[in-house]
## 1
Amino acid sequence: MQKTYLCIDLKTFYASVECVERGLDPFNTNLVVADSSRGKGTICLAVSPKMKLLGVKNRCRIFEIPKNIKYITATPRMKKYIEYSANIYGIYLKYFSKEDIHVYSIDEAFMDATSYLKLYHKTPADLAKTIIRDIYDTYGITATAGIGTNMYLAKIALDITAKHSPSNIGYLDEEKYKKELWYHKPLSDFWQIGRGIEKRLNKMGIYDMHGIANTEQKKLYKEFGINAEYLIDHSWGRESCTIADIKAYKPKTNSISNNQILFEDYSFEKARLVLKEMVELGSLRLIENNLVTDVIHLYIGYSKNVIPATGESKKIIKYTNIYSELLREFLSIYDRKAVRSMPIRRIGISFGNVIQTDNVQLSLFEEQEKLDKERKLELTMCRIKNKMGKNKILRGMDFENGATTMLRNKLIGGHNRWGVE
């Protein structure tokens, strides 16, 4: 039985939400979603369709917007966007079981429509139109859709074909894909082919999907390793992964990560303070979820990429979630790897090989009573934060010059929770 997938995208989602909230039409309003308090160099998270027609690119910086264009600046409100996204997911549930929906991002989702077409007596395009109309009538958000015989083709139909369709709906099967998109350029328009992969393919004399499909596979595997398999399959429009496969997938290892782009250039000492805050938040997250780790990684990025990023991965001698122990390990890496004379703009930490605390055997050689006391204290802090608010209990370092915890506790995904109402 041939599968039918839908991939639905909420068009210029953040900007559309801001327009709807103001009673404005996104297609007739100049609006950008950006935190102007961060300066002219801040990235616009989204621009309205009207701005795009004027040549303003999504993800541009404020100073790149032509001076002759007048526009509204909307401060990001991540909680509001999450609320809209959740409500629109509720619309999807009117038509599909949750087992047949895969939420790909806050504004994009896949649906396996195969068994629903007969139920609703609709063609794939009619079903897509019904859902798109329901989203617009209920929330005022315009959506586009890709239809494909597999998830990859549905995504490509959305990203490339739907843009040129008056109905905002595109359709692809393997034959149509080869006929219409085999010679499409650039390659970076295709899902999962970034600029870096495109450059590597170009160096091999490959500039389109036809080129990938007709290149000797041995050369592709030599250049891309196991990832060549995906490139080859996608060049023919093939994709074996289903939503059921995604739902059933269980990763062999788990990790938790946290990254910060600092608001300004930080010195070695100020960035060291931020690292301490980040490790504390990571430790609290591990303890709250009854998890421990024995692998850590630190990433340090420098201002304007003046030098390559530094950092290190390290396997520690035992599983832990204790702040003092994790902090000691992270600071040992930081003090060795951070370039003290260079301004720091980005810090990333991660805990790898994360497992449940119950699976770890206690050591006879540790001061277990002392560790349990620290863990109990941190768990109490978690409960207070969850009940009263994250900024209701803080460490002394959070009040030092350059600390970011209090501000970031007010953000979602690095952006303002509420914005300006």
## 2
Amino acid sequence: MLNKKTEDQIQIKGKRILVRCDFNVPLKGGVITDDTRIRAALPTIRKLSGDGGKVILCSHLGKVKNGPNPGESLAAVAVRLEELLGKKVTFVDNDNVTGPETTAVVNAMQEGDIVLLQNTRFRGADETKNGEGFSKELADLADSFVCDAFGSAHRAHASVVGVTKFISEKGGDNAVGYLMEKEINFLGNAVENPKRPFVAILGGAKIADKLNVISNLLEKCDTLIIGGGMAYTFLKAKGYEIGKSLLDETKIDYCREMMEKAEKLGKTLLLPVDAVTTESFPDPIDAKVKTKNFAADEIPADRMGMDIGPKTIKLFSKAIKNAKTVVWNGPMGVFENPQLAKGTKAVAEAMAETDAVTVIGGGDSAAAVNQLGFADKMSHISTGGGASLEFLEGKELPGVVAADDMPAEA
């Protein structure tokens, strides 16, 4: 369980509270296409504003390669936030984020007011390299700091970690918000204190992204299910013919080690027993394709596995339905293509039908669950892809570590 100071344990009324949110939402032509992350921040913002805090919000958006640009401005976020809150949100359109213009707006704030700063990544390396100058400038705007950006908690950036040092120096509090608290408690309990049987499901394309996750979860779960593109390297490690399917030759020995580890620990490691194949990768990704199903050890040399097959769906679904805790990260196939989404959909369906605690570990799995219409059937959907993965690896997240610890009970 979380042993960090939360927003419920800090002074709010009349105080300037800087809140690091995760407003890294997808934009298309300046329009927000998915506002999930904005909605996830609302409980924290409402609490701080409602209790008379002067709420200063900051976030990054996009990758921001070449300095400030209108396409990655948080202006659209301010508009959507105002609609969702039903309350005025003042946007400080200052590409430098901090400075006299920003300070003047903050100084004019009344209790309950909400201000949104410009994209923190517009400051470039000052933000991403945790620059002391920018960290202090952010801290100078506030009395206390609340980190509610789980999706950025694995990054030691100025607006996530650096600012906390200067808030502490002035005697302010560094707390976590409601979203961070919920994320850490759900993911933490699911992995460290699960109701059993505990089934972990890993998919997606790259084994390299999930090396430590596989190893860590094998020690915690009862059954580990592996699907998606990464499964074919495991099948190759078993000596199977996988055709043109995705293969990471440098990880074949690692896959053997993991299969041996599962056996040694008495854990069940489930791999696909059949696959939906195509001649080539669909281009565009949702293009119509001719599919054929083959047993997992009989994929022809000129075909590639693109999704788990019907027998695998039954195998995986049975394991999920018997579980009491399920954690899922990574799709079972190329779910963006309707013809290759059956495996991912079946896993989501099996999770939706179980009475287990079901946790979706962000990224593509969250996108798939939302897209396929199962979001409201899950216990928790994480807002952080990379952060969830690092959490599942057993790593400490810098954004969590930087928050004040709860004082020990006397």
## 3
Amino acid sequence: MNVRFGIVGCSRVARRRFLPALHSSKAGKFLFAGSRNKEKAKQYALEFHAEKHGSYEDVLADERVDAVYISTPPLSHAEWVLKAANAHKHIICEKPAFPDYGTAREATSVCRAKGVRLVENYAFKYHPQHQIAKTLAKNKLGEFSRIEIKYLYPFPPDGDIRLKPELGGGVFHDSVGYVAATAMFHFEKPPVSVWCRQKIDQGKNIDTHVSFRLDFGAGVVAEGEVEMGAKEYASRYVLYGKSGELEVCRAFAIDSDKPAELVLRVGGSEEKIVVNPASQFQLLIEDFCKELESRSSHKDFEADLLLQHKVMEAAARSIKEKRVVALSEIF
């Protein structure tokens, strides 16, 4: 039986990414569109063939809704995660799910107590190119010990929530989480310590640039930069090993109908590897639904979320206190 979804927040990412993926999925069904704007809810329901539309509260009150996708402004995520959990709805929440580690820990505890699953939507990890890159790096690069990550993009259009400090705007909350998620995906463990620096655009009153270094011990590091308002667009990372390097050219935001490209450089030669198009959102939805329908849990989404927020808390503390912060300090 399909998992029946409602959405809490008719956002741009819901319309461009989540709902097309849900519509294409055989595992989920779009049942209820929820928005503060009733006309927008109606528009989304018509466009993506939902049976119902209404307010956020209407979505949570509907007994037929099994799970919700939350894409409200970031600083309101915690409120609606808690309300959804208390309404016994499973949850996919847009990133960042929470503003800090303490809130993440509290919300996760409530979800576990209510018997609902919670996943933070770092859908990029589901694109097959990353597992292919990990396997290639292990087989071709020897022991890889460094990741360099760059995520650079222009300013979003006026009115975008990423430009509104009161709604949690800025590059740190919007994009730095990709760094932690990428590094932990490849090194398969949390960092020992985090160093971060931030630049503030005084005119816009938001942070627009973050440089970082995650130290995993024994010479294993992830470093690079994230920038909003850059002149160029870059969404890539490079894995460095004893024998060469492997570049993932379009890492975080890739259209479901576009192939991905990896570049392997070993011994002075260069090889391009093309990965077939894939919908990372659809793959996440289907994995989530599979977990819900399974009699026993195979993945600990909640532990992954908590670790992600622990690293982000260390990064935020590093920025505030201008020092390297050990992950063991966050509890």
## 4
Amino acid sequence: MFLRSLVVSLLFFSPVFTWADPVRTAVVKIHSSRRPPDFLRPWTKGPLRQATGSGVIIDGKRILTNAHVVQYSSRLLVQGYQSTERMPAKIVGFAPEMDLALLEVDDDAFFENRPPLQLAKGIPKLKETVNVYGYPIGGDQLSITEGIISRIEFTRYFDLTPGLRIQIDAALNPGNSGGPAISDGKIVGLVFSGIPSAENIGYLIPSEEVRLFLNDLDDGEYNGKYKMLDEMQTVRNPALRKRLQLPDETGGVMIRRIFSEQKNYPLKNWDVVTRIGDVPLDQEGNVQVEDNLRLSFQYLIPRFQKEGVIPLTIFRNGKEMDIQLPLVLDPQWLVKPLKGTYPQHFIFGPVVFSAGSQDLLRTAGPRGETLLASRRNPLIRRRYDLADGEQKELVVMGARMFPHPIQEGYDPQVFAVVEKVNDQPVKDLLDLVKLIRNSEGDFIIFDLAGNYETLVFPRQEMFDITESILEDEGIRYQFSKELAPAWEPKSGTDRDVK
């Protein structure tokens, strides 16, 4: 009898019997070898970095984590709870604008004795207690911290993509990213960010947003979230309400600037959106979602949209009317997000050209953005303008010019936007290459937008010195392979392209 009890006790406390705590066994450590873009040297990738994050096993033998944990990874390994073995993994779903990613492990045996966790349904309650699991810095073992849900709001994640966000007061540190927040044994959210300068403020991507991401992936491809990108404002001001002829009991949001100027676009400036579907808006543009919780009416877009269109009731010129508003799935920004790709580059003489991106601005940080704003750089001023037939992207110079007597006397034009080449407007990087290739005359002139110098170079000499500059700097490729069709032997080089 004693022997049987001893055996049972040993088995019960043995780490092999991982079913004893299904939450812990479902949380994994993610090891990534990453080479992010190098915006100072866009002709190459950044140095290899080793990083770790967290993830959680969900249905279908899949691992849910943050996009920023796995982005630009050349190799991904996952490590299970109480295991020393690291298994190769691959990305099968990727949504950088929502900071979500889905992984699969090459060997299904990894999931034996590691049951998945379920996503919680609905929106959690304020003051609800959650436990956050993950592998933050400071140790190798699984960390568990506790906190309460202190705020729930509908906000913007990245690149104007809207979504629900949960704030918690649990202690979060680097490495917690991608780990689950658990309540009653289910995932209420996924850790994705914190505020280093504040104490115990962290953010979760709610299970609702995770479900939208997973449902979008059902066909094997992530398409993105439908968005309403019209500029809006509240209608609380008495004079504004009188100008709009709004009845006292009517709430809504006023359209300050419509997203599209097309004649068939159903919204007009000064329209007031009063309902989405059959749900009325208050004077802040919010709707009642649950007891003691009001959120922006855009929270209901996934519920009411059908094939990219939502039903709205608007108030115009003293009358209510129903419209069907087309939504935007993938806006073509003038300053584009890279979405896990690398920036293209073109080198001409001592000058490096690339395309401005949202990622470049995020890397520059608040101080860099302030500096660019002080120079009236369009990267800031036109950050969320849409591309059109006249201009498809903003072309920028590099952070520095290569040393050569030809650029003597010019200051560094840090990420200055190239407006014209020899008085010809620049539409995009490919167009800039064509303009340089087809340039004529003694000089080539680059007009830069904002408070930057105008650059004048001897045209033929710029062609002649490019090859030697590339050799001096140890740069293998003058331009990205996507730009090859725009470049001809006139460049004076037969180098390979990237």
